[in-house]
Amino acid sequence: MATLGTASCLDKVHLSCRTEDFKVLIMHVTQDLELFPEYTVTQLLFKDVKNATELRKMAVNGEIKGALINPSMVVDAFQILVAANKAVHLHKNGKMKTRSLYSEIIFNLSPTNNISEAFKRFGISDSDSAVHIVFVHNKDETLNIQDIISKVDGEQIAVDRVSDLSDAAKIKKLYKIAPQEEKCGSLLDAVVCRMATKDVA
User: Fold this and answer.
1) For site-directed labelling of 18, which of 38, 45, 61, 127 has its Cα 20 to 30 A away?
2) DSSP the chain
């Protein structure tokens, strides 16, 4: 099967995020989705987390209405935006492959269409010590950031430091990224390309 060039692949990602709307608010990042102007994506990042089990239960019970992602599999916050944008698109068109918008974000991070594998690789486990939390909310809705922070027993760090928690070796292995790809583009480019084209036969 022919391999798409990284540049042409990225051109096919209809991302929807206006750079001028990118705002760093204290330690979290908020960005509007251009194609879906009523939606905003907010990301928070924590390390040295001691209550991953409780956080997972809160997410299941609806106490945390967001996606809990394993940051070791995230190269950059842009990767999350790609997944969130696609999830909103599928949600609005009634074509999600999972049961909720947040589970769809986690699924969209995966390079394959195996849902259980996506949750295993990109969701958090009870033993994880870091968590990347993602919220998609109405642009006019006020997100209670302090309430979310209070639920996490860990240290909040700037979202742009997610690469500090990334496991590049695992990411390259999962996305099957060859060394020559990184010579003509970044690891992020290759990852986003895999995410964008996984539904292409």
Assistant:
1) 45
2) -PPPPHHHHHHT----B-GGG-EEETTEEEEEBSSSTTEEEEEEEEES-S-HHHHHHHHHHTSS-SEEE-GGG-S-HHHHHHHHHHHHHHHHTT--SSSSHHHHHHHHHSSSS-HHHHHHHHB--TT-S-EEEEEEEETTSPP-HHHHHHH--SEEE-GGGGGGT--HHHHHHHHT--HHHHHHS-HHHHHHHHHHHTT--
Find the Cα–Cα–Cα–Cα dihedral 120, 126, 131, 136, rounded to 10°: 70
The answer to whether the beta carbons of residues 67 and 102 sit under 8 Å apart is yes
- Nearest Cα neighbor of 72 from 128, 154, 133 is 128
Closest CA to 15 of 100, 99, 77: 77
Cα separation of 108 and 87, whole Å? Answer: 7
Which residue is listed with tokens 């949750």? 119
From CA 159, how far away is CA 76, in angstroms rounded?
9
Pairing of strands 23-25, 155-157: unpaired
122-176 pLDDT tens trace: 999 999 999 999 999 998 888 999 999 999 999 999 999 999 999 999 999 999 9
In 3D space, the residue among 62, 180, 82 whose CA is nearest the CA of residue 122 turns out to be 82
With vertex at residue 115, the alpha carbon angle to CA 114 and CA 118, rounded to the nearest 5 degrees, is: 90
User: Confidence class of residue 183 from pLDDT cuts 50, 70 and 90?
Assistant: confident
